[in-house]
Amino acid sequence: NARWAFKVSGWRPSLEELKLVCSCVQEEEKRRLAKFVFRDDFDASLVGRLMMRKFIADATGVEYDAIVLGRDEREKPYWRNSTGSDCRVDFNVSHQGDYCVLAGCVSRKCEDTRIGVDVMKMEYTGGKSLSEFFRLMTRNFSADEWKSIRSGKSDEDQIGAFMRHWCLKESYVKNIGVGITVDLQKISFSPVSERLSEKSPIVDTKLFLDGKYAEEWKFEESLIDSQHCVAVSLLNTPENYSAQPFEKVSFQQLMDGVKPVVEIDEIYCHNIERK
C-alpha cells in the first residue's frame, strides 16, 4: 500500500528532465496533459502520472515499460493487468494547493478493494466574506455537517473544518467515479476525532448515505503539513489493511527505476515550456 505526497509548488523540471519524464508517459496521456493551459496544472498532472506508474511497478514487480494504463467508462485510470495474476491494484491521485498525492492499495481480485483520495489546502482566498461563501455552498453539505463546520471558534477553525469535509466528499465521489454531480447533502460525514495530525491518520469518521450508516466504507484522514489536509476513502478494505501516514517523496524517488515507454519528443517538450 502507498500514501505518497509530492510538493509540486515551486517544482519546475529542466528541459532535459522534462524530455525524460514525458518519455515515461503513454502517448494518449501526453495528449491529455498537453491540453492544460497553465504550466502548473501540467506539472502537477504529470507528477500524478509518474506516481501511478511508480506505484504499479513497486506493488507488482512488473517492468516499468511493460505497464499499460487504461481508463474505465468514467475516465478513471486503471492498470491493464495482462500478467494473469490474482493481484488487483487500485490507486487514485489528487492535486491541489502545494501537493500532488497518491493513495494506492493491493488486494486480491475477490476482495475488490476500491480507493479514492483528495487533498485540500486549508485556506479561503475568495473575495466574499466567509459567511457569504458558506451561504453559497449550503447545498453541498447536510445540516449536521454545517453544524460541525460552524462549530469552530474562529474563521480559521471553520475554514479548516470546511476543507476537511470537502476533502472527505471528494475522496468518496472520486472513489465511485461520479464527480461532484450527485446530491452532496445525501452524502454526510460525521467526524469523531476533532484534530488531524501528520503522524497518525484517524479512521473513526463515519459516512451516512441517505441517512443510513455506510459501514462498508472506511476513511483515513491526516495532514500533509500544517496547511494541507488529505482524506482517503476505502471500500472493501483488504485483509492486511492498516492505516498509514503520507510519505513525502522526492523527484529522485519518483524517477527511480523508470524506463521510457515512448520516444523523446523535443517539439512536444518545447511547446510545454512555452506555457
Automatic annotation (TrEMBL):
Coiled coil: none annotated. One of its GO terms (biological process) is lysine biosynthetic process via aminoadipic acid. Its EC number is 2.7.8.7. GO terms for cellular component: cytosol. Keywords: Transferase. Transmembrane segments: none annotated. Residues 114-232 form the 4'-phosphopantetheinyl transferase domain. It catalyses: apo-[ACP] + CoA = holo-[ACP] + adenosine 3',5'-bisphosphate + H(+); apo-[ACP] + acetyl-CoA = acetyl-[ACP] + adenosine 3',5'-bisphosphate + H(+). GO terms for molecular function: holo-[acyl-carrier-protein] synthase activity; magnesium ion binding. Residues 10-105 form the 4'-phosphopantetheinyl transferase N-terminal domain. Belongs to the P-Pant transferase superfamily. AcpS family. This is L-aminoadipate-semialdehyde dehydrogenase-phosphopantetheinyl transferase. It comes from Phlebotomus kandelakii.
